[in-house]
UniProtKB/TrEMBL annotation, chain A:
<keyword id="KW-0249">Electron transport</keyword>
<keyword id="KW-0408">Iron</keyword>
<dbReference type="Pfam" id="PF02589">
    <property type="entry name" value="LUD_dom"/>
</dbReference>
<dbReference type="InterPro" id="IPR017896">
    <property type="entry name" value="4Fe4S_Fe-S-bd"/>
</dbReference>
<dbReference type="InterPro" id="IPR037171">
    <property type="entry name" value="NagB/RpiA_transferase-like"/>
</dbReference>
<keyword id="KW-0411">Iron-sulfur</keyword>
<dbReference type="InterPro" id="IPR003741">
    <property type="entry name" value="LUD_dom"/>
</dbReference>
<dbReference type="Pfam" id="PF13183">
    <property type="entry name" value="Fer4_8"/>
</dbReference>
<dbReference type="InterPro" id="IPR017900">
    <property type="entry name" value="4Fe4S_Fe_S_CS"/>
</dbReference>
UniProtKB/TrEMBL annotation, chain B:
<dbReference type="Pfam" id="PF02754">
    <property type="entry name" value="CCG"/>
</dbReference>
<dbReference type="InterPro" id="IPR004017">
    <property type="entry name" value="Cys_rich_dom"/>
</dbReference>
<protein>
    <submittedName>
        <fullName>(Fe-S)-binding protein</fullName>
    </submittedName>
</protein>
<dbReference type="GO" id="GO:0016491">
    <property type="term" value="F:oxidoreductase activity"/>
</dbReference>
<dbReference type="GO" id="GO:0005829">
    <property type="term" value="C:cytosol"/>
</dbReference>
<feature type="domain" description="Cysteine-rich">
    <location>
        <begin position="3"/>
        <end position="83"/>
    </location>
</feature>
<feature type="domain" description="Cysteine-rich">
    <location>
        <begin position="128"/>
        <end position="221"/>
    </location>
</feature>
Amino acid sequence: MKDKRIDHAGAAAAFIADAPHLAFHDERLWDMRQKRDAQMHLLPEWQELRTLASQIKEHTLANLPDYLEQFERNATRNGIHVHWARDGAEHNRIVAEILQARGATTLIKSKSMVTEECDMRPYLAARGITVTETDLGERIQQLDDQLPSHIVVPAVHKLTGDVARVFATHYGTDPNADDPRQLAEAQRQAARPVILHADAGMTGANFAVAETGTFVVCTNEGNADLSATVPGVHIATLGIERLVPRMSDLGVFVRMLSRSALGSPITQYTTHFRGPQDGGEMHVILVDNGRSARLGMADFWTSLKCIRCGACMNTCPVYRRSGGLSYGAVYSGPIGAIIDPTFNERKYSTLPFASTLNGSCTNVCPVRIDIHDQLYKWRRVLVDHHQMPFVKREIMHMAGKLMGQPRLYRAAIAGAETALGTLPRFALYSWLNPWGKQRELPHPVEETFHAWYRRTRSGNGTADTGR
Amino acid sequence: MKVGLFVPCYIDAFYPRVGIATLELLERLGQQVDYPLEQTCCGQPMANSGCNSDAAAAEALFVRNFERFDAIVMPSGSCAHHVRDHFDAIPQTDAVRHVRAHTYELVEFLHDVLQVRAFPWAEFPHTVGLHNSCGTLRALRTASMSELGEPPFSKPMDLLSGVRGIRFATPARPDECCGFGGTFSVAEEAVSARMGLDKVRDHHNAGADYIVSADSSCIMHQQGCAERAGIPLRFIHIAEILNGARE
Ligand code: SF4
């Protein structure tokens, strides 16, 4: 069966109908964008850093097989077990095997978008392994059985009252106690025993360094450090595009990551993992899951430069007003709209159209991904692959024909019953109808510019047509 | 210099006074302007929707109409952006390349080519909020962009500063898209209308009596939102002010 297309417009309309949530969401993310701007102004070399970051990533991606193998060699030398996962299924199987071989039934983990991509939690749950998210926002989303709505702040669409209700259901706390400090404390109390007694820990990784075989995890809550070090078994899972060649490249990215994301100079914790702790073990899973295929796409491969800072989401006026869940995908916002179709073209075919192509995303992206140009190009690809709904496709087809024929065009805008051809008029009108729901139509005018010109400047102008 | 005037379809149909102001203004500035009567559209609506092959007929017609001019001027940033940056549904002949390289949005043409700064006939004793459309701002780059932290500049502001009596209101989010976005305005009605409402509120709260823009499509959308919400703002194209409109 064909997958249903994500109804972004419908989900966004529902999000907008909830005034308090909409206002909070828009303000919160806009505030992050403004803090990012303030940090940018403090670094006169900001644009240079963006160029450098982009060049490092493009170079790495152009030589990815070599750098991956170099990483594998060096990581192995450091005592890290390196695994390769072609797709989500392989990734999940590898994780389960590592855990089952050690009789582990509880796993604590910090935030990792790759594990969301692989839909890992249900897979492990079915095998008797309990996964507990240790990032506060991610834990809230886990308890509420929702995808993260933002790649940096996963529960940003929720108000404190929503969190209180989730905690009341799962932790038995007071549903009306919505003080953020109390809520954080409730989470701390619930998480601490789980962390202390977990059999294994899992993290993502922001960067992996080929020349050293080490990797870096950036968080603000320190939960990744607990997840990695307390249980003794540490599994780090990362997309193959996380690589940078040298340790000295890291500075470029670390300087920009948190500034772009939250507008803070650096994350609270920037931890370099170099190998297993004494008596412990460390695994790294290098996940492809469609990345090699994306690397082969001439117009879209640079989306692999993404460092998952979320700046494009924070600045996106559409994302701020529709909420991440409306994208119906692991990755939402502008970056989601250009990579989701590589996972499932039909299902996510609506997302590149959920944009005004305003270009703000491209301007904030710290690795200079031409996000809005890729949105534009995706539209072409999707239309070529017959992923545009029939009515809209037909309207464009007819409009295109009409615009090539001045005489018919003049007749059509004069209001004559003409050229609209094969498509029933009601289809056209019902497609255009939404304009008037919350907007007035433009005011009628006495005559078009064309008519005025012919009336007042007759004798002037070239080749006369129509009215 | 022979100037060809392109009046985009929605201006032709809904805002003829913008076309008239553009023509009169260019003539006041001594330009010899011709308006080819066979013109329709630049192809943007089809191309922006991904239906690039459906833009071919409009693009071919556009080239036939305008290849004989030294400069092609239009009071629309998004159309100028389409012709200059995306106009590739047809083979790139010399004529096509000539047209693409000589297409100007009105503000750029006045500011960069004619280099006018003074509009002695113009007086506009009102407080205006300037709306830079995303096409003019981020594609044609007629003003500095807040995301880049570049030294501030604004070509439309440079021109409007030559108008007597005009005052400016600065909205809190001057660079935020107003949400028109072509077919986005109907396909994503809820988001589009909300963005429009937020935009007009922002200008209203900043004390603007008018929103002025170089793009009538943004104006059409914002005006529709403001009128429905009962926000007492008025809307005017920059060509009208520069040509001496008083209100
Ligand atoms: S696309 Fe750019 S701005 Fe968006 S999350 Fe990735 S790195 Fe950040």
